[in-house]
Design a protein that fits this description.
The structure holds three protein chains of three kinds. Chain A has eight helices and 21 strands. By secondary structure, chain A is an alpha+beta fold. In chain A, the strands form four sheets. A six-stranded mixed β-sheet of chain A has the order 7-8-9-3-10-11, with helices on both faces. Chain A has a five-stranded antiparallel β-sheet with strand order 2-1-4-5-6. The chains are: A alpha+beta, B alpha/beta, C mainly alpha.
Chain lengths: ~350, ~350, ~525
C-alpha cells in the first residue's frame, strides 16, 4: 500500500494539445480518490500517466517513494506493481477464468500451487468462488468485471486503478458492484483511484473527489465540501447542476445582468463583475398564477420533482419537494442562497452563502 | 480451448502430411545427389514428349528389369522441351536431364552438332532399321511415327475420304481440318519442313491449305480427339493415336496420302554432361531391345526392329510411301519452315 | 520483432517485385508492348476481365440480395451451392464446361446431328467471359453479403414506414448503399480475372483468343522470342501498374462509403409472395446449372469409353478412371501439391500471424507499412509473381526446385493470413494487452501471450485457406514447374493439353469433389463454433 504523488505533471499530445496541465496531486496511502470531469477533461489521461501508458512531458510521478516517471526515469507499466480494471473488463477470451486471474502471479514467478491458492482466494473475495475453470465467454458482464477485479488485486498491488470500470454495466448491477468494490477496498486497505463520469458514484464512494476540466484540477476535496463550497462555477455546475448567472456585485448584493434576480452575498465578495451559481436545492418555487416564471418540464424522482423553470428568460434547474407541479404552471421563484464568484479571479475560494430569502 | 483444438487439427494434419511428403519427395532427388552415396539406386532424369501413360508404362517395364535404377520423367511437347533445355544450358548447372526422348531427328542433329550429346551405340544396333540410327552414334530412333490423314468415319463416307495431301486444299474442306502446332509438337515441326521440301507440295500447298482455315490444336493428342468426336472431321495427325482410338471404339480411321507420309523416329540420346552414364545407356538399350520394342508395338507404334511384328491394323513399312528428304536439308530449313507455318496458320 | 518481420516480408514481397521492375526497368523492351501480339493480347485481357467483372457483379449481387433479403426457400443449401465455384479451380471448371458446351460435347453433337451445326461452341472470347464470370461471382456474393449485413435494417424499415413497398425499399435504399461494395467487388474481380491463366488457355487458345497470361506462357515455353524473360518482365510491369491502379481506385471507393453504425436488428426479409416459387425454381435451375452440371459433364467425360462414341449406358466404363488414379505423374503431382500447400500454409500462418499482430498493435510507421507490404501481392496478378520468382531463381539457387513454387505461394498468399488476423484484432480494444502489461508482462511478452494467442484461431483459419488455395492453383506452378516437381494443377493441365481428356476429367472430378466436401465441412464447423 502506498501513496501516489503527481508533481507538476504536464502531458502533451502529439498534435500539440495539452492533455494535462500542471497537475499537483497527492493521494494518501489507503485513500479512495475519484476523478470526475466531462469528456476530454483529462481524467483518463491522468490515470494512464499513473499506470505508465502515457508519459508526462514534464513533471514527476511517484508511487510511494519511488519515482516512476520524471526526468530521465521511466518505469514501464509491468514494473510499477499496480492493479488496473478497464472499462471493457479486458478478460482474455482464450484462457479460462483461473488462468486469467493467475497471470500476474505467473509473471511474478510465483510457484504453481501458491498461484492456485491465491487465485482461489481472491476469486472468493469477489464472489466468484469455484469459477476457475469457467470460460469467460459464458460469463455475464458483471461476472467478467469481477474476474477483471480479481486479476487486478491478486498480486497484492500497491495501488488499484479503475478506468470507468463500472460504466459498461447496467444500473442495478453497477449499484451492487459499487458497494462490493467499496467494501473490498476498505477491507484490503488499497489505495484506489477511480475514474468515472458518474458524479453520484464519485461522491458516494470516494474519500476525496478531484474534479477535472480541460486538463486541470479544478478542485479536490471531500464530497461534502465540494457540494457545500464549490471552488469555481464549473465545479458547482458540474457536480450539482447549479444554474450559472452572470451579473455584478455592489455592496454585498449580487444583481443578475438583465434579470430580476437579486441575491445578498456578503461583503467578502469584492465589487465588480461576478458569476453566481445557484444550486437546484437552493431554489424554492410556489404555485402563483401571477408569477413571472413558468414550469418548463417536470420529471418525477423518488425524492421530489426535478423541474426546469423558465424565469424571465433564464432556465433554472430546481429540485422541488412537495405537491407535484406540472408543465405550464405559473410559479413564483425564490432564491435561498447562491455561491458568488468574482469573474476576474481565476481560482476562487467560495465566499459565504447568503441565506436570505428574497422576494422576486 | 476446444474450439482452438478443432481448428488446430486440420492444420496439424496438413503440416505433418506436408513434412512427411517433403521427406518422401526430397529422397527422390536428382541424379547428382544420388551419386555421392555410392549406394545401389541410381536415378536418371528423362525429358520426353511421349504421352504420360506410355512413358509411365515404359519406365515401369524398364525398372522391372533394372531395379537399381530410378527414372524421373519430365514430359512436355518437344518445342517446350527444347526451350527448357536452352534455358538450363545458360545456367550454371547445365542441362538437368540425362536422357532425351523426343520427336524428331533434326532436333537431335542440332544438339549433336553442338557437342551436347554422348556418343553411344546400343547393344542391339544390328537389329534396328538403319534409317533411324545416327551414323555418328549420337542418337537412335525408337519408333516409326508417320503423320497421316485421319477422318471421322461417321461423318465422312468411304467415297469422300481425302486420299492425298493435295486434296486437303479443296474448298470443300474449309473449316473442317485440324492440325497440330509445330511450336509445341516436334513431329509437326519436322513435317512442316518436309512438306516445304517436297516438290509437289512446298509453300504453295501450305498457302492453299491455309485458305481452308484449319484449326491449330496444340499437339497431336487434341487433334485426334477432335477428329474422333467430330469437332473437325478431318485431321493431320500421327498414326498411332488413330489406331488407339479406333481400337477403343471411336469412329476414326486412317487415310495414307498418295504423295507419301513424313515420319519421325522419336530418337533417344544421352546428354554429354550426364552423371549416370551406365544407367542412361541401360535405358537406351531397353528402348530398342526386343522387350522395349514389343512394348512399343503394344502401344500401337510401328517398331524400329523387324522381329517384333507390327500393331494390329497397321501396314508394314514397305506398303506405304515415305517422304524422306535428306536430314541435313530438313535441319537447315526447319526453322524457316516453322516460321512460314506460323505466319500462314497462326 | 518488427525488424525480423520486415526482413521476411522484404524477402517474400519486395524482392520479387523489385526484381521484375528492375529487369523491365531499362525500358529496352518497352517497344514490345506496342507490338501487335501484345496489344491484341492486352485488349483481349481487358475485354474479358471487364466484361466478366460486370456480369459477375450483376449475378453475385442478385444472388446475395435473393439469399439475404428475401424469403426464398432452401436458402442455406442454395448459398452453399452458389458459393461452390470458389472451391473449384478455374481451369477445372474450364475442363468441365468443355464437356457441357465444347464443340464435342454431347449437347453440341446432338444439336449438330439434328441441325447441322453445333449449338454454341464454348471456345473463344464468349466462352472465356462466361467461365470467368462463373468463377468470380461467388467473390462478389461474399463481399456484397458482408456489406448487406452492415447496413442497418432500420434504414429499410424507415423506408417502409415512409410508404415504400418491400421491393422498392430494397432497390431504392439498400442497393445505392451497396455502391461501394459493388465497386470494390468489381475491381477485385477484374484485377483477379486479368491474370487468370487456366481459363483463357483451355478455352481461348483453340480459337486464337490470346490473353496476356497465355502470351507470357507461350513466350516462356516455346522460345518464340529472344530475351523472353525481359519481355515477359516488361509485360509483367505493365500488368502490375494496371492492377495497382485498380487497387487505388478500390481504396478510394471504399473510403467514400458512408460510415454506418451497425444495428443489431435482423433485416426483415422481403416476402416474395406469388413470385416465390418461380423465383426459387429459376434460381435453383441457374445455380444447379452453374455448379452441378459441370460435375456431371466431368463424370460423363471420364466414363465415356472412347471419344466420339454416343453417350449411352453401354458406352460407359470405369477403365479410364482407374488408369487416371494409377497415373504416376498425377499421383506425384498430387503429392507435390499437398506438400507445397501444407508448407506454404505453415509459413504463411506463422509469418502472417506476426505481421498481423504487428500491424494491429504496434503503433509505429514501420509496422503499418509492413501491413501494406504484406498485402501488396494481392494486387499483383499471379503471372507477374511467377515471372518475378523465375527471374530471381538462378541468383537464389532456386532454379528447377520445388522451393521456387513455395516461395511464390508465400508471396501470393501471405496477405490472406495477415488480413484474417489483423481485421478482428483491430476491432478489439488494446486494453487486453494493457491488462497484461499491468499484470507484469513486458511489451513483447504481452504481444505473444495475449495478442498472438487471441489471434491464433484466425491465423489457423487463414493458414487453412492458404492451403486450400495453393493446392488448386495453376498459374504460378505452370510457369515455375521443374522436372519432378509438378503440381496437381499442372498435371491436369498437361493431360488436357496432350489430349488425354478422360484422365484430365477424372482428376478434375476428384479435385472438384474434394473441394465441395471441404466447403461442406468448413461451413459445418464454423456454424458449430
Amino acid at each position: 500500500m502506498s501513496s501516489v504523488t503527481l508533481d507538476s505533471v504536464f502531458v502533451r499530445f502529439p498534435g500539440g494539445a495539452f492533455g494535462l496541465q500542471d497537475i499537483d496531486l497527492r493521494v494518501a496511502d489507503g485513500e479512495f480518490l475519484a476523478l470526475v470531469g466531462p469528456s476530454g477533461s483529462g481524467k483518463t489521461t491522468l490515470l494512464r500517466s499513473i499506470a505508465g501508458f502515457a508519459q508526462p512531458t514534464s513533471g514527476r510521478v511517484l508511487i510511494g517513494e519511488r519515482t516512476v516517471a520524471g526526468g530521465d526515469a521511466f518505469v514501464p507499466p509491468e514494473r510499477r506493481g499496480l492493479g488496473m480494471v478497464f472499462q471493457q473488463h479486458a478478460v482474455w477470451p482464450h484462457w479460462n477464468v483461473g488462468r486469467n486471474v493467475e497471470y500476474p502471479l505467473r509473471r511474478a514467478g510465483v510457484a504453481r500451487a501458491e498461484r492456485r491458492r491465491r487465485a482461489a482466494e481472491v476469486l472468493e473475495s469477489v464472489g466468484l468462488a469455484g469459477f476457475e475453470r469457467r470460460d469467460p465467454s459464458t460469463l455475464s458482464g458483471g461476472q467478467r468485471q469481477r474476474v477483471a477485479l480479481a486479476r487486478a488485486i491478486v498480486a497484492r498491488p500497491d495501488v488499484l486503478l479503475l478506468d470507468e470500470a463500472l460504466s459498461a454495466l447496467d444500473e442495478p448491477l453497477r449499484d451492487r458492484l459499487r458497494l462490493e468494490l467499496h467494501a473490498l477496498a476498505r477491507e484490503l486497505g488499497l489505495t484506489v483511484i477511480h475514474v468515472t463520469h458518474d458524479r453520484a458514484e464519485a461522491l458516494a464512494l470516494a474519500d476525496r473527489v478531484a474534479v477535472l476540466d480541460a486538463g486541470r484540477i479544478q478542485q479536490i476535496d471531500t464530497p461534502e465540501r465540494l457540494l457545500e463550497a464549490p471552488a469555481t462555477p464549473f465545479v458547482a455546475h458540474f457536480l450539482s447542476d447549479a444554474t450559472l448567472v452572470d451579473g455584478a456585485v455592489a455592496g454585498g448584493v449580487f444583481r443578475a445582468g438583465g434579470h430580476p434576480m437579486v441575491v445578498r452575498c456578503g461583503t467578502s465578495v469584492p465589487d465588480g463583475d461576478a458569476r453566481a451559481a445557484i444550486a437546484p436545492g437552493a431554489v424554492s418555487v410556489r404555485r402563483d398564477p401571477d408569477g413571472d416564471a413558468s414550469v418548463r418540464s417536470s420529471l418525477f424522482t423518488p425524492s421530489g420533482s426535478d423541474l426546469v423553470v423558465d424565469w424571465a428568460g433564464l432556465s433554472m434547474r430546481v429540485t422541488h419537494v412537495g405537491p407535484r407541479l406540472h408543465e405550464g404552471e405559473r410559479v413564483r421563484v425564490g432564491i435561498d442562497g447562491a455561491q458568488v464568484y468574482p469573474s476576474a479571479a481565476t481560482s476562487v475560494a467560495p465566499v459565504g452563502a447568503a441565506r436570505e430569502r428574497i422576494a422576486a | 480451448m476446444n474450439r482452438t483444438l478443432t481448428r488446430f487439427a486440420p492444420l496439424a494434419v496438413l503440416s505433418v502430411a506436408g513434412i512427411a511428403l517433403a521427406g518422401c519427395s526430397s529422397s527422390g532427388a536428382p541424379a547428382d545427389a544420388a551419386g555421392a552415396e555410392g549406394a545401389e539406386t541410381r536415378t536418371i532424369t528423362v525429358y520426353t514428349s511421349e504421352p504420360e501413360e506410355k512413358i509411365d508404362a515404359i519406365v515401369d517395364a524398364f525398372t522391372a528389369q533394372n531395379p537399381t535404377v530410378e527414372v524421373e520423367v519430365f514430359r512436355a511437347g518437344t518445342g517446350d522441351l527444347t526451350t527448357r533445355i536452352a534455358t538450363e544450358q545458360k545456367s550454371a548447372d547445365g542441362v538437368q536431364a540425362d536422357v532425351l526422348l523426343a520427336a524428331d531427328a533434326a532436333t537431335f542433329e542440332g544438339y549433336a552438332a553442338d557437342g551436347d550429346l554422348l556418343e553411344y551405340t546400343p547393344a542391339d544396333v544390328e537389329a534396328i532399321n538403319p534409317d533411324v540410327v545416327d551414323p555418328e552414334g549420337y542418337y537412335t530412333g525408337t519408333r516409326i511415327i508417320p503423320t497421316v490423314i485421319a477422318y471421322n468415319t461417321s461423318m465422312i463416307d468411304e467415297a469422300d475420304v481425302p486420299a492425298s495431301w493435295q486434296e486437303l486444299t479443296d474448298p470443300a474442306y474449309a473449316d473442317k481440318i485440324v492440325m497440330p502446332n509445330p511450336d509445341v509438337s516436334g513431329a509437326a515441326a519436322y513435317n512442316a519442313a518436309v512438306w516445304a521440301l517436297t516438290p509437289e507440295l512446298g509453300e504453295t500447298w501450305l498457302a492453299a491449305l491455309a485458305e481452308n482455315s484449319p484449326v491449330i490444336a496444340d499437339s497431336n493428342g487434341p487433334v485426334s480427339q477432335a477428329v474422333a468426336t467430330g469437332a473437325q472431321p478431318v485431321g493431320v495427325v500421327v498414326d498411332y493415336l488413330v489406331r488407339e482410338l479406333a481400337e477403343q471404339g471411336s469412329p476414326i480411321a486412317v487415310s495414307y496420302p498418295t504423295e507419301g507420309v513424313p515420319y519421325v523416329s522419336q530418337p533417344v540420346g544421352i546428354f554429354a554432361n550426364t552423371d549416370e552414364e551406365a544407367a542412361s545407356q541401360a535405358f537406351v538399350d531397353f528402348l530398342v531391345s526386343e522387350e522395349g520394342q514389343q512394348l512399343a508395338v503394344e502401344q500401337s507404334y510401328l517398331p524400329v526392329r523387324g522381329d517384333v511384328g507390327t500393331p494390329e491394323g497397321a501396314p508394314s513399312m514397305d506398303d506405304i510411301t515415305i517422304l524422306n528428304p535428306a536430314l541435313e536439308d530438313v535441319q537447315s530449313t526447319q526453322d524457316a519452315a516453322v516460321e512460314t507455318f506460323r505466319k500462314l496458320f497462326l | 520483432m518488427v525488424a525480423a518481420l520486415w526482413l521476411a516480408a522484404g524477402f517474400f514481397v519486395l524482392l520479387p517485385i523489385g526484381a521484375i521492375v528492375l529487369l523491365a526497368g531499362d525500358g529496352s523492351q518497352a517497344a514490345v508492348l506496342l507490338q501487335g501480339d501484345v496489344l491484341e493480347a492486352a485488349r483481349n485481357s481487358f475485354v474479358s476481365a471487364g466484361a466478366s467483372a460486370v456480369l459477375a457483379v450483376i449475378i453475385g449481387t442478385a444472388l446475395a440480395l435473393l439469399l439475404d433479403r428475401t424469403d426464398i426457400p432452401f436458402r442455406s443449401a442454395l448459398r452453399i451451392l452458389a458459393l461452390s465455384p470458389l472451391l473449384m479451380p478455374p481451369f477445372v471448371g474450364a475442363i468441365a464446361w468443355l464437356g457441357i458446351a465444347g464443340p464435342t460435347s454431347p449437347l453440341n453433337l446432338a444439336w449438330r446431328d439434328a441441325f447441322g451445326a453445333p449449338l454454341w461452341s464454348i471456345y473463344g472470347a464468349d466462352g472465356v467471359i462466361l467461365l470467368l464470370t462463373v468463377h468470380s461471382y461467388p467473390v462478389v456474393m461474399l463481399i456484397v453479403s458482408a456489406a448487406l449485413r452492415r447496413i442497418p435494417s432500420d434504414l429499410e424499415q424507415a423506408a417502409r414506414m415512409s410508404g415504400a413497398g418491400p421491393v422498392r425499399s430494397v432497390l431504392q435504399v439498400t442497393v445505392p448503399l451497396l455502391r461501394p461494395a459493388l465497386l470494390s467487388s468489381f475491381i477485385v474481380v477484374a484485377v483477379g480475372n486479368l491474370a487468370d491463366f487456366g481459363i483463357p488457355s483451355i478455352i481461348g487458345l483453340p480459337e486464337r483468343f490470346v490473353t496476356l497470361a497465355t502470351l507470357v506462357y507461350r513466350y516462356l515455353q516455346s522460345g518464340t522470342v529472344d530475351e523472353p524473360l525481359q519481355i515477359v518482365a516488361t509485360i509483367g510491369v505493365f500488368v502490375l501498374v494496371l492492377a495497382l491502379i485498380g487497387v487505388v481506385l478500390q481504396a478510394l471507393a471504399a473510403g467514400r462509403g458512408a460510415q454506418l453504425d451497425t444495428s443489431q436488428a435482423r433485416a426483415e426479409r422481403v416476402r416474395l409472395g406469388g413470385w416465390r416459387t418461380p423465383t426459387a425454381v429459376l434460381t435453383w435451375v441457374v445455380v444447379l446449372g452453374i455448379t452441378v452440371l459441370p460435375l456431371v459433364a466431368l463424370a460423363a467425360q471420364t466414363l465415356l469409353k472412347a471419344p466420339g462414341v454416343p453417350l449411352t449406358w453401354s458406352n460407359l466404363t470405369l477403365d479410364h478412371f482407374a488408369d487416371a488414379l494409377t497415373s504416376e505423374t498425377a499421383l506425384q503431382g498430387a503429392a507435390n501439391s499437398l506438400m507445397l500447400a501444407s508448407l506454404a500454409a505453415v509459413v504463411c500462418g506463422v509469418l502472417g500471424l506476426g505481421i498481423g499482430v504487428a500491424v494491429a498493435r504496434v503503433r509505429s510507421r514501420p509496422a503499418r507499412l509492413l501491413g501494406a507490404t504484406a498485402n501488396l501481392p494481392q494486387a499483383v496478378p499471379g503471372i507477374v509473381i511467377a515471372v518475378a520468382w523465375l527471374i530471381l531463381a538462378p541468383t537464389l539457387g532456386l532454379f528447377n526446385t520445388p522451393w521456387l513454387i513455395l516461395c511464390a505461394y508465400v508471396t501470393s498468399f501471405i496477405a490472406l493470413v495477415v488480413q484474417a488476423v489483423a481485421a478482428p484484432l483491430e476491432s478489439t480494444p488494446a486494453s487486453a494487452e494493457e491488462a497484461a502489461r499491468i499484470a507484469g508482462a513486458g511489451r513483447l511478452r504481452s504481444l505473444i501471450d495475449i495478442t498472438c494467442r487471441m489471434a491464433l484461431p484466425a491465423a489457423l483459419s487463414g493458414a487453412v485457406l492458404v492451403a486450400v488455395t495453393a493446392v488448386r492453383e495453376l498459374t504460378l506452378s505452370v510457369l515455375l514447374l521443374s522436372p519432378g516437381s509438378q503440381t496437381l494443377g499442372v498435371a491436369i493441365f498437361n493431360f488436357q493439353q496432350a489430349g488425354a481428356f478422360s484422365t484430365a476429367s477424372a482428376w478434375s472430378l476428384i479435385v472438384a469433389v474434394f473441394g465441395l466436401a471441404f466447403i461442406g465441412v468448413a461451413t459445418r464447423t464454423s456454424s458449430r463454433s
